[in-house]
Amino acid sequence: MKNIIIVGYPKSGNTWITRLTAELVGCPVSGFWQERHSEIAKEGGDRVSDYRCYKAHHQLNEINLEINSNSGSIHLLYVLRDPRDIAVSGANYFNFDKINLIEQLFRKINKRKLYLSLFPIAETYQINRMSRAIIQGDKTLHKWLKISWRNHYKPYLDAGVLFVQYEKMLSSPYGECEKILNYLGIQRDSAFIDKVINNQSFAKKKERFEKMGDKSQKSFLNVGKSGQWKAKLSQKQKDIFLEHLREELLFFGYETDI
Length: 258
Description:
This protein is an alpha/beta fold. 52% of the residues lie in helices and 11% in strands.
């Protein structure tokens, strides 16, 4: 069995790229790499293929340990996204609890959602916490955020793993799909690639999930845009990213003139 692991920092677009890659290849998304939880990215269970696609947020050394104990063939793809947009997306996704006595009371009576509706956590606080995780790591926020974005992507870059940029997949998906297929040594005609791009578009997937009544899948996809950080981040937050990650932003072609 040939395994394709699509890995990236959380909220980088891993679910989207994993599903798209699996449909390009013609194989199922079998779940989250070496995890037993119910993975939201799973689809295509009826596809017959020698390949299996897996989503992952692992560090490279964690992947390597698992590869060494796995007898199948492994292909790695790394999903890269502007860390400022990761901050915005993560702020809308992760739980940012500011524990106090009132919240503890609501938790005891199993009414946490009611607490958050009555005492919403400010978006500024959420973005600040997510930004801190991206810049220096924060395992208290989530186990997959225990290391910084830089320390996560850099070993993959140094190892020569294929990088797929979220923004390029939005702006020029055909070229990115060709890059993935060439890397895997798989040929597909242009009509097939165009069909996959359309099937996996955010609008198409949301429409499908809405018809199915699957609210969790629909909301998980969020908006599927780039550059949200320009409107969502304060100037101070933008400056913090430039202070710590200007070199990487320039290297990967992200905007720094703000």
